[in-house]
């Protein structure tokens, strides 16, 4: 249960209790309830409560309230923290026993209510759905004609999605319509590597097992060029998808060879996060360059105190490959370049572009040198850290800075265990030599398998239209997911007001700082990523000199590109 849910439970219970007190005036006020809910609410919202303020909201005489507050302090359910250096005044906060008990109570209320109104069966996990979310909005249901046709066929829609909180919430939203189109068992949520393997295996089947699949944006070229997914151009207008409402850089992530093969469902940006309290304490400016990151990190790196200068995604494979490609972009280069510069997501004709690896370059060398320097101000096991462990390190207060993708960075503000909530500045990535403050743009696309029977394509396209609708995405933003792929949502002040991450992303988009070319969605991307993940990790762990690692990566990627170019030419001839 996240903080937003807990606040909604408190509000819900308060609204239930108020009428009873009004209709039964002889009822005695319960000071413990008022004290506990006020403390928990203030803690979640970052507000300050003094003894006198808490006594006032208790609803009982001042002396009675003070007696009950002191009892709770003595038992450890309330803790006092000095408000000033003199220690003469204090603020009150819920202790660990109170937070644990109240969270357990709220989780129980959430489960009982869900079972009562039929949203969940008693056998399902309480964490599989979110309290207080409107899950049966009629504007999200597919068109009646599509619904009837799907029901008449006796077959529900099936989905292959990424296994994360965003897609789990989407699964629950769809399944809760109770319209016989899909249930929870019709959704397969898999980790990224497994999702890729499943999507490839599905393409080799005579008939697709799934109606809709999810693609990591850099996979698009491989899936489109190999004919594993269908072109969606003929369906976009029919299902209400307006490409002009998407940020061009976001919409382009689903485009290949001048045709649309995927619709963006969620955008994720690799942000640079910095602790505002620690930077203020040391009177430091937020870094805008590689050198400034290292300088700040050295001043904030305090392993003996349980805090490191920075954390980032350094584990072998996809995480470190993604980190390296992003940093090369910050140095003004790219791992793949053509005659006109870095490869982009836009309509690349591989047989003509003659893309070449660019690992033997100043940009690649500068990025790798920077990663070596980052290691000196990072946790000793940083080269074993993937996305979630790195995020965990920062949100628990054990790092002063972090590179983190926005879909995971949302935990800095929403996770109840976060010690950095409202203490983080979200920034574009610092620039390297001869580079700029460019922030990598990633995310996921919804696509239709090429081997889906034609009589099922219309329903699949309608499902994509509803899942990517403004209303559907807005509901996810309301639930704390920082997805902002549409102009109409970015223009809504209510959308950006509640999330510092959403505001930061919106500002970067307006300044043109979001780019996807660092991880080009070209055929062979997975192989390119694998090679970089191996060679860069070997360099940073000392298995190879930097020059040898970059040279080996250059030659290995060149072989991949030649193979892919040959396959493309054969296919198009």
Low-confidence stretches: 118-124, 133-142, 343-352
Work out the strand percent: 5-15%
The top level CATH class name of the domain at 278-402 and 429-439 and 517-572 = Alpha Beta
Strand count: 16
* Class per helix and strand makeup: alpha/beta
- Nearest-integer average pLDDT: 83
CATH superfamily of the domain at 278-402 and 429-439 and 517-572: Periplasmic binding protein-like II
Q: Helical element count?
A: 25
**Through-space gap between termini:** 55 Å
- Mind summarizing the main beta sheet? 9 strands, mixed
Report the CATH topology name of the domain at 278-402 and 429-439 and 517-572.
D-Maltodextrin-Binding Protein, domain 2
Cα-atom radius of gyration: 26 Å
Global morphology: globular
CATH structural architecture of the domain at 278-402 and 429-439 and 517-572 = 3-Layer(aba) Sandwich
Helix % is 40-55%
How would you describe this structure in keywords?
alpha/beta, D-Maltodextrin-Binding Protein, domain 2, 573 residues, 13% strand, nine-stranded mixed β-sheet
């Amino acid at each position: 249960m996240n903080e937003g849910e807990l606040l909604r439970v408190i509000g819900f219970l308060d609204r239930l209790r108020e009428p009873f007190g009004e209709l039964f005036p002889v009822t005695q006020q319960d000071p413990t309830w008022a004290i506990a809910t006020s403390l928990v609410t203030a803690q979640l919202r970052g507000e300050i409560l003094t003894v006198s303020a808490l006594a006032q909201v208790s609803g009982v005489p001042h002396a009675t309230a003070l007696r009950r507050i002191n009892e709770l302090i003595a038992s450890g359910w309330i803790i006092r923290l000095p408000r000033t250096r003199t220690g003469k005044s204090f603020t009150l906060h819920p202790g660990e026993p109170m937070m644990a008990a109240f969270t357990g109570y709220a989780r129980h209320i959430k489960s009982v209510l869900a079972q009562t109104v039929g949203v969940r069966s008693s056998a399902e996990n309480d964490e599989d759905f979110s309290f207080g979310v409107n899950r049966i909005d009629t504007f999200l249901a597919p068109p009646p004609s599509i619904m009837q046709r799907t029901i008449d066929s006796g077959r529900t829609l099936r989905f292959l999605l990424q296994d994360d909180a965003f897609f789990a919430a989407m699964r629950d939203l769809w399944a809760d319509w109770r319209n016989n189109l899909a249930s929870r068992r019709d959704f397969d949520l898999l980790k990224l590597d497994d999702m890729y393997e499943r999507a490839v295996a599905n393409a080799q089947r005579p008939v697709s097992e799934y109606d809709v699949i999810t693609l990591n944006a850099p996979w698009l070229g491989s899936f489109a060029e190999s004919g594993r997914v269908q072109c969606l151009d003929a369906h976009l207008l029919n299902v209400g998808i307006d490409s002009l409402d998407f940020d061009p850089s976001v919409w382009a992530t689903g485009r290949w060879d001048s045709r649309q093969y995927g619709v963006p469902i969620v955008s994720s940006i690799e942000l640079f996060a910095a602790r505002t309290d620690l930077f203020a304490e040391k009177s430091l400016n937020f870094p805008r360059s590689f050198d400034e990151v290292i300088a700040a990190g050295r001043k904030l790196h305090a392993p003996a105190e349980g805090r490191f200068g920075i954390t980032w995604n350094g584990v072998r494979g996809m995480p470190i490959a993604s980190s390296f490609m992003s940093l090369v972009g910050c140095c003004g280069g790219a791992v793949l370049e053509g005659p006109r510069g870095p490869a982009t997501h836009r309509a690349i004709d591989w047989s003509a572009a003659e893309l070449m690896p660019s690992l033997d370059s100043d940009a690649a060398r500068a990025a790798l040198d920077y990663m070596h320097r980052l290691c000196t101000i990072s946790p000793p096991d940083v080269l074993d850290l993937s996305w979630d462990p790195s995020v965990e390190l920062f949100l628990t207060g054990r790092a002063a800075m972090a590179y983190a993708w926005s879909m995971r960075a949302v935990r800095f503000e929403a996770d109840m265990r976060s010690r950095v909530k409202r203490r983080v500045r979200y920034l574009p990535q610092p620039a390297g030599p001869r580079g700029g403050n460019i922030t990598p743009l990633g995310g996921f696309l919804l696509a239709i398998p090429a081997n889906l029977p034609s009589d099922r394509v219309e329903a699949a396209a309608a499902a994509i239209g509803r899942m990517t609708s403004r209303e559907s995405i807005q509901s996810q933003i309301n639930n704390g997911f920082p997805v902002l792929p549409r102009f109409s949502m970015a223009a809504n002040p209510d959308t950006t007001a509640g999330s510092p991450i959403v505001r930061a992303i919106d500002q970067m988009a307006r300044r043109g700082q979001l780019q996807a070319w660092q991880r080009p969605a070209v055929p062979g991307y997975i192989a390119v990523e694998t090679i970089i993940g191996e060679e860069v990790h070997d360099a940073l762990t000392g298995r190879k000199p930097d020059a040898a690692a970059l040279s080996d990566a250059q030659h290995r990627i060149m072989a991949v590109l030649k193979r892919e170019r040959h396959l493309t030419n054969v296919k198009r001839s």
